[in-house]
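Recap quiz, item 2
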Amino acid sequence: MENEKSILNTGLRGVTIASTKISDVDGARGKLVYRGYQAKDLAGKISFEELVFLLLYERLPKDKELKQIDSDLKNERGIPPELLSALETRPRDALPMDILQAAISMLAHHDPDSREYSREAALRIALKLIAKIPTIVAAWERIRNNRKPVKPSPDLGHAANFLYMMTGEKPDDERTGFFDVCLVLHAEHSFNASTFAAREVASTKAHMYAATAAGVGSLSGALHGGANTRVMEMLLNIESAEKVDEYIENILNSGGVIMGLGHAVYQIDDPRALILAPMSKKMGERTGNLKWYELSKSLEHKAKEAFREKKGRDIYVNVDFYSASLYYYMGIPVDLFTPIFAISRIAGWAAHVIEEQFGGAADKPALYRPESDYIGDYCGAEECSFVPMDDR
Amino acid sequence: MENEKSILNTGLRGVTIASTKISDVDGARGKLVYRGYQAKDLAGKISFEELVFLLLYERLPKDKELKQIDSDLKNERGIPPELLSALETRPRDALPMDILQAAISMLAHHDPDSREYSREAALRIALKLIAKIPTIVAAWERIRNNRKPVKPSPDLGHAANFLYMMTGEKPDDERTGFFDVCLVLHAEHSFNASTFAAREVASTKAHMYAATAAGVGSLSGALHGGANTRVMEMLLNIESAEKVDEYIENILNSGGVIMGLGHAVYQIDDPRALILAPMSKKMGERTGNLKWYELSKSLEHKAKEAFREKKGRDIYVNVDFYSASLYYYMGIPVDLFTPIFAISRIAGWAAHVIEEQFGGAADKPALYRPESDYIGDYCGAEECSFVPMDDR
């Protein structure tokens, strides 16, 4: 293949490998589109439940359809008592993303739909995963703090219910609204690493639980979803706005990276960050503590300046940069930031698994099976000859 | 990119995306090479433990080194009692591959090495996974049959110990030897779907447990590792050699596939199948029942003939075709065939995760993040305009 060299060991960056009807990311223009609609036009106007309908059924729901999916999701929020028993066996210091990956695999054990290979079964599993992942994340947060998990409330929407299950207290409308916008903004982003992992697993005809567990594993990585937790750890570490200059200088001198800056696709500020930043500010004002927002803002400006001056290039904020302080203001534990990403992104993963297995041009998936170039040893010959133990 | 069209929606088939020092697959010549050595030259000459050393440390071990890795693996065979408790909570009819994926995620909860991003920690996790996966598979086989798991025996090698933990009886030398050859032959196969999934997850800097769980998910698919179970189900379904003609005709007429025939890479008989076939025959002779071997042989010959005549092309046996009857003769439950694939393939997955994260040219992984081509709706405009609920 002619351009083999250009794609070798580059993580397929810039290589178009598949067509999709789910989303469009225009990195140059900073545009993120879900099923034809710009994400920024949907944020604040539709609930996460409405977005789930859009992603799974390819159009915005009518009133009756929204009520139906809302009710379906509510009905599926519970998790099997045996799964709670399994979570009780887990070491209390286990990382929430590691717990989530295991719990998603375990959901398959309870669901006969995991043995049916059909679009209908996949759609049913999609709703179950979207409904149950928040319950799992909240249950683990309670269990690890030696508190009883809180049962989902049928009176609350998806966003409010998660906050309620996590804290035991019903959140007010503003907090709920902000969290809902976060869920809408994180739900889908084309062939990002976790979605690609989920599609890759789905391409073998594995079920959606197996594929989603792969997505969660990928999202847990520091270079992917794990970044939002690391942004907050960085902010806590910098601690005050006066130390920003010193921090940036140290990073630039040591060749390190500033978490939350830079993106594999966007060559301009992430459209999601532009919505999240003012939300962080508002939530900071509300809690009477603008420190983390202002520290973020200062870090953004000074880092951009430093990159232009010292590296001769621009750097931009990504989705993780302002979601960190926003979640922190909302009282969410720092190591739950990435699981919250998963609570939202499951909508995109599910849509992609269905597209990989049942949508698109071919009726069966083209198993992802790339080639590699062997650059290892051949013992200077056609191949290595076996050497018995005594002669080594 | 010039050749975008040629790679769009083809599952990256034939596209060389990375260099590797681990293995070489020459599909045209039917050659499989592990770190310079042909797999067929190693099968029967080295134990699985020796192969693990070769794959992880890039050369065959000296006597002392082999004794060390053998002892290290033996020391790591036990699984935490809390993990056994978690397995006890699982529904008895859960699929073994689904159990394995969950259990591998759970191993991370118990291992502080999962929080250390270093080659040394990754190598330690590799040995733990290689040692513990057989224990998990055997424990589940016992638990689902309401029997007590059998503790690993320090007197037995890797192959014999698994068979012992599964059945409670120490296997004889021939059975052990055959199983060891199976483990050696399935251990590694470059960028197959499960290894690619594991590397993909590892490229985000996620730990090896998360990456391996993705590999297990991918391997569970019917188009990948799940195929060996399906070969046996097909043989049991055909039932007798007289029905082979009818079966092939039905498959060809319905446009179906014959399990165990055809491969993404090999354009000639799979070199592993050529070793497995005579082993199946010998084990059949030993059990006094050649039926499944002979049925396989007849199916192979007649299918090859039918493909040439009716489809005008050749078709070849892959690794799953004869491993099915061989495992069946060895008394292994049919739905454990794929977990046994994982017991072996973990050696390759681990080597690839380490190469992805710490080997190769760059010191940090190039996160796999391909592009996709949006072919969805834009409502006939630049983009869809948001329509409020009442106007839909």
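Chain A touches chain B through 118 residues (CB under 8 Å).
The radius of gyration of chain A is 22 Å.
End of item.
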